[in-house]
Amino acid sequence: MAFTLSEIMAARRQQSQAQAQAQRGNRTAVEVDEYSTNPTQAFTFYNINQGRFQPPHVHMVDPMPHDTPKPPGYTRFVCISDTHSRTDSIQMPYGDVFIHAGDFTELGLPSEVKKFNDWLGQHL
Q: pLDDT grade, residue 51 (50/70/90)?
């Protein structure tokens, strides 16, 4: 009987979770991805295998239009990155938590930092 890569990975995760839970009792813990200490290996592994399987701890979501109302009782995260001083055309949705994951300037000039800060002040 042959197993797919996703079945093997799921079995390994279940086994390691069971062992970890036995060692710590019934406390809940956040699972750390096995590649978290080696980003290059993680990128290579998930990039190569992304067409074949979805890691069990990653849940894909469909993007929502920027003006979608937030349901009551939910926390909305607004995540962007790589704006490179090109924030003029961004339609910023309402959110409770804003995350900019980096590369907000093109050249790192103080004027670009000020422009980004001004833009944040207008939208947050």
A: low
CA angle 117, 103, 87 (to 5 degrees): 50
The number of distinct structural domains making up the chain is 1
Query: Are 68 and 91 spatial neighbours (Cβ–Cβ below 8 Å)?
Result: no
Asked if residue 111 is part of any domain, the answer here is yes
Convert 59-79 to b/e letters by CB count within 10 Å (16 or more is b): eeeeeeeeeeeeeeeeeeebe
Q: Is residue 48 part of a domain?
A: no
Tell me the pTM.
Answer: 0.49
Kindly state whether residue 30 falls inside one of the protein's structural domains.
Answer: no
> Has residue 55 been placed in a domain?
no
Question: What amino acid occupies position 25?
Answer: G
